[in-house]
Design brief:
The protein is of the alpha+beta class. The strands form two sheets. Strands 1-2-3-6 form a four-stranded antiparallel β-sheet. A two-stranded antiparallel sheet has the order 4-5. Helix 2 runs antiparallel to helix 3 and helix 3 runs antiparallel to helix 4. It contains five helices and six strands.
């Protein structure tokens, strides 16, 4: 059975949200903050939490950031809806759906995790603890866990400025939602720049 464009978008969003939340809930209920599990020498499950943006970056106040995410997600929903109506290519719609699903995945953490989990600091968190959560609505921490120290070395001593210093690549710790956003954006920029430009031009012209 051939799926419609809207069905593809819905399927991608549901799958990303399910995978993202299953991983996060497993980490929250099986690991304490700071715990690490080595999968390979270059891949770890390393439990961290942050209230910032993707990959743990932090620039804005927590409530402002959560509200910004909600508004941005609403804008993406409207954008997706208009793209589906105009019959854009399915692959392009899937990329936008990946970005939207990733944003919503992290919004779920911010909205609910502070209420439905107790703290992970020094212990494994409990789901719906009798004493209540570690924070309030909109103040939940985003759960991150994927850590890829592909290169772990020391700069040669002869190098200026950084000689002798420890160097790790790739240092940021991220989650499945972050990866979904990044993959969607990268594919759009690599293969769908023309579609992106056309959709933005049509939006500006009111078509």
């Amino acid at each position: 059975m051939k799926l419609s464009k809207g069905a593809w978008v819905t399927l991608v969003i549901i799958l990303v949200l399910l995978i993202d939340q299953i991983i996060k809930i497993w980490v929250k209920t099986h690991m304490a903050l700071g715990d690490s599990k080595e999968i390979t020498s270059w891949f770890y499950i390393y439990f961290t939490e942050n209230d910032g943006m993707a990959f743990g970056w932090k620039f804005f106040d927590k409530i402002f950031l959560t509200l910004f995410r909600l508004i941005a997600s609403g804008a993406i929903v409207y954008y997706l809806w208009t793209l589906i109506k105009k019959q854009y290519r399915t692959a392009y719609l899937v990329c936008v759906a990946l970005i939207f699903a990733g944003a919503v995945g992290n919004i779920i953490d911010c909205l609910f995790y502070g209420v439905i989990f107790n703290t992970s600091l020094g212990q494994v968190a409990t789901f719906l603890p009798p004493e209540g959560g570690y924070s309030t609505w909109l103040h939940g921490q985003v759960v991150d866990m994927f850590y890829f120290p592909l290169i772990d070395t020391t700069w040669p001593s002869w190098m200026p400025f950084c000689g002798g210093e420890h160097f790790i690549f790739f240092r940021p710790i991220f989650n499945f939602a972050d990866a979904s956003i990044s993959v969607g954006i990268i594919i759009l920029l690599l293969f769908f720049r023309k579609d992106l430009s056309e959709s933005l031009e049509k939006k500006e012209s009111g078509e």
